[in-house]
Amino acid sequence: MDTRKTLLEAKATSPEVLEFIERSRKEFHPFTDKFVKNYTKHLAEAIDDTGIGSEPSEGALRGRTISDMVNDQSGMLVAATLEIFNSVIRGFTRYMDDSFAKKYVTNSVVFKVPLVEYQEAISTPTNVQLPHVEKTIDYATVDLSSPESERGGKVSWTRALLEDVTFEVQGEMAEGLGHGVAMRMTRDLLRCLLGFDLADTTAQSTYFGKLAGAAVISTSTAANGGITWAQFLSIIAAVDIGIAVTVSGEANSTYTDYKTYGPADYVLVAADVYWQLLNIIQMTNVLYEGSTDPITAGKIKLALGCTIIKESLLPKGVVIALNSQKAIALVTRRSLKIEPILFPVWNEYGFIGTVRYGCVILFPGAIAIGAPDGVLPTPK
What we know:
Helix content is 32%, strand content 26%. The chain is α+β, with helices and mostly antiparallel strands.
């Protein structure tokens, strides 16, 4: 989609808008889902003074200009319009790829993410009975009651700037708010995956002991030529193979088996590792001929059965392989909320955008982490 277009310039029938809406339906996210509903609803209801349908130009859809504000009885105002929301969402979708997280939307202050595990007990009949297949259910709790669960930012102008600024400039600054929200959310998700959101070092060491591979997997440093193909494969394979467990066999015997939470379908890599991978011939051999995604989007799809995503917020040398259905959950209590602010005494006019969310690890065994020399650096 041509992100330079404002809402007024983006017709409901334009190919860019149709492509954006279609992609949003396939890649669900509560922010873009809400945006699409508002977008299509208001475009459909837009009418002119004669009652005939037309391009949206009035009411809640209009970007506020100085001519509008002269007629506003409330005085100076930056309306939190759909256009503003549109700009924030553009900034968000440009910089946010959280497709690797399992998403929940709730109205509850405390949300419990279900953790379901099946105990594989399929066998031959014993005494003409088949074994009972057990299912264990636990919960990972996400507390959204604290003020820290709300993240957001503010975009504001002075009275003089507001009189002169065009909506294109307002829209560009609003995109910055979307960018800020995206960066914060991505950072929190990555810190959670790396175990740095845990309260104490004891809990953190327990977390690392439960990772697929049972520890941080050692890779080469950039000074030694960077990650090798064998090291990269070992990180992905750790999720596929699972965690070694002791199983009781016949006649009180025991043996080692592997418990898995499904194969890795996403691999998050630091920026330096991403470009190292593109220098490995085994990786370039599996890329689709003619695809521009590795360069334009920082994403390699369907390589080794995974989607490889470049994450600039990861520390240097770090690789995270995971199963997106069992690794981490993102819980949002509400979608992006945009509210106007008006502080004439401080000569400040604008709006704030906030979101309430939390993230939690589901099963550490669905995550494998690689880092230079097996030492995980502190995340950004």
